[in-house]
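Sequence in, structure out. Go.
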Amino acid sequence: MSLLVVGLSHRSAPVSVLERAALPADPQVKLLQDTVAAEPATEAAVLATCNRIELYADVDKFHAGVAELSTLLARHSGVGLEELTPYLYVHYEDRAVHHLFSVACGLDSMVVGEGQILGQIKDSLARAQDLHTAGRLMNDLFQQSLRVGKRAHSETGIDRAGQSLVTFGLEQLAAGADVPDWAKDKKALVIGAGSMSSLAAATLARAGVCEIVVANRTFERAERLAQILTEGTDTDVAARAVPMDAVPFELTRADIAVSCTGATGLVLTAEAVAEAVKGRTGDPVTGVDGTGRTAAHPADLRPAALPPTTLGTEDGCPLDLSAVQATAGFSVHGEAAVAGMAAADLEQHAAWVDNAESLGRSQRAGDGAGAVTTPDPADDAEAIAALAAAVAVIGRVPERRRPEPVAEIPRPAPALFLLDLAMPRDIDAAVHRLAGVRLVDIESLAEASADAPMASDVDQVRRIVSDEVAAFGAAQRAAHITPTVVALRTMAADVVAGEIARLDGRLPDLDERQRGEIRQAVHRVVDKLLHAPTVRVKQLAAEPGGAGYADALRTLFDLDPETVAAVSRADHESEKNGKNRGPA
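Output:
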């Protein structure tokens, strides 16, 4: 069996795709159950956070495993497989181990070095254990990843390379100001009472806000979080709980609102935010372009549709799009996911468009027949095939458009600060266009963190990860040969028992002391003969390429394969009965 991980994250997929593919708790349970029920996999675990969805499994066939895990991810996420596939990544064996260890250390996080991922890995392991989908490999892998993550944080300064997502989000809200100075005496509303919301509430309390109101669909959980904040010894913040239907009113009182729920729809619409700001200021809320558009017309808060595309009508265009009814056009980068194509494919087509336009201008200017040549459609075969596939799926072709210049209009000082840490998003993205509001969400955090400086400690953490991956691989390879060694010792014990029984029949006059001495002597001889080979074979098996030593041992000693399999089954049953459980 071999470790395989299939997933997508903020590094491989746009936020719009991650948002749609987000897996709440119930779909995660069903995904795990269906994975272990599938033929290629025997155990599995799901790591689902606000910016990654990964399915880990122990599979017996690589290609079948990739196909099955990809299909299951698409089915349970609700995103079609054809649309999801371009954003999936696959790691196998040592690369899969390296990936999870890097994730546990915060190297793969949106904000490098954040430590919250350790709690999420721990929760993922606990879920797999509760559902009995975690066997020896998943238990060993996830427990070791927790130890590696803790080692990275204790032995290096990786914490200085970045902050938790909450802290980073508050820094973005403060827009360069010192967070404690910015937060001092402000009132905060926290929507949700899960781990991220609790972290946000505690961070706000330490930052110096004067009041925190907690809203949650389960009122008892909101009360519990408010009680913890009130009774905390390191802050003196006032905290209280309210039901979710009180959010619109509380939003008119709050200076800062943080939302992180498991809701599949919007928790705060642009209209609700605009009404809250109006309730604070008494003035209607305008759009950022200063036209006076308000939340009474929600469509006005969103970008206007682009004009219809004209692609396919130019002379010499290699695409036959005469039958395609094109609607609104797409930009290259922002809508690549919606188009179902990689941005690189769109760029290739855009290059053809640019070249075609240049060609037309040159020919019209009379530059001469030899100056330029007509692009050969065969040169763009791959781009054309990709575009044709997009046409078949969405009925239109993305068009490269240069952004229209937007006048720089000063925004008024924010009256309300919003931090959306949910995936899918809790707060309508159209709020970005409201004057008097500053919204920071997962997408804007991703953009802001892309240029964040990397601390020198990151290199040290990478070395730790590499060392730990090598050690984990050696331990797994050594463990792989253990059933064969146990079967060999069992066979030797059976041979000794048979010879002692034969000796008892031939020498019936021996007393018990003599029989005991003979029995011990025979056992010592067998143990000494087996000690060096079994120790050495474990050492050899732990080295890269050492998997074949188990087969060699079985062949040399003519071990019964069923005996070896029985030892493995016994180990597996002990794990299912609760042994070797519990995160480190």
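Check: Residues 457-506 form the longest helix (50 residues). The longest strand covers residues 41-49.
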